[in-house]
Amino acid sequence: MEAVYERPGNSGVIKIKEAMETKLNAGEVMVKAEFGSVNHVDIWGRMDYPWHKFPRRFGSDLSGTIDDAGTSSTFKKGDRVLLYPIKFCGKCERCLSANENSCLTRELYGDHVPGFFAQKVSVPEKNVIKLPENVSLETAAALPVAYTTAWHGLVSRAGLRPGINVLILGGSGGAGVAALQIAKAFGARVFTTTSQQWKSERLIKLGAEGVFEINEKLPENVLNSSGGIDIAFDTLGALTVPMGIRTLKRGGKLVSIAMTTGSEFNFGLRDIYSNNIDVIGAYLGTRNDLFDLVRAVSSGAIKPVIDSLFPFEEVARAQEKMENRTHFGKILLKF
Ligand SMILES: [Zn+2]
Q1: Which of 18, 179, 228, 287 would suit a FRET pair with 94, their CA atoms being 20 to 30 Å apart?
Q2: Would you state the pLDDT for residue 96?
Q3: Distance 225 CA to ligand 1 centre (A)
């Protein structure tokens, strides 16, 4: 079985159907799916964009076991694995310098090319990561898109370190909670946002020092509580990026990972150049980031927050939960 978008539209365009027999190409392994997770990119994936082909199998986060390792593979049947969701060439300058998320021919599985949500999926061996024994398949499925993007933005690009002030804009979704946990694991002071009381309580339990509502007073409120932010991590887009920049200390950094609230905004350059501000765009992360994360989970430094678990067949309901914003952390699927 596989999960397919038949055409652009709401969650009603999702069909669970019999999958075609998949064959193993050279350099690929067959993975039997165990757990997946839902991301905003899945929901954007059913929008009517020119690069979206329909019908198309979707899904970018998947863990499972090796079903067929083919010939001359380093994997063997039964190995517990996690998939890296970017299709990369492995040969261009960006790939050879371990920047697969900037590969010149980069595509995202599930968005630009058919995704992972099938009971069996064949994937290039270079996209497969073997899991340590103490990292469960369930936990691992939460990591690839949300946690890797947060790790890439905060750690690899913005230089997260102990004692600095981090602000997360859009704190209760998958990437927002991931960013909070990663920042705490590095010993940062974390300030975050949400509009719901129950989510605010959860964020404080996870170690947030201050939780703010998003309104025009946000920059002032954050500055008063924190004394200024070193890294603002934005998961929301045009609504909050200008606010995030206004909370920064001189020399601070703004990391942008999504545009849920829009792509275009007006902002005076004066506040950027005269304050030595770095604006960083983060598109997912590298394989290295995902390896680092798996190690951080294995060591116990990070325990991904799981909101709920749906049977794979109910992926439409899982996506609706994300669209209705009644979740906190990651929504998983069991195959
Ligand atoms: Zn490449």
Answers
A1: 179
A2: 98
A3: 44
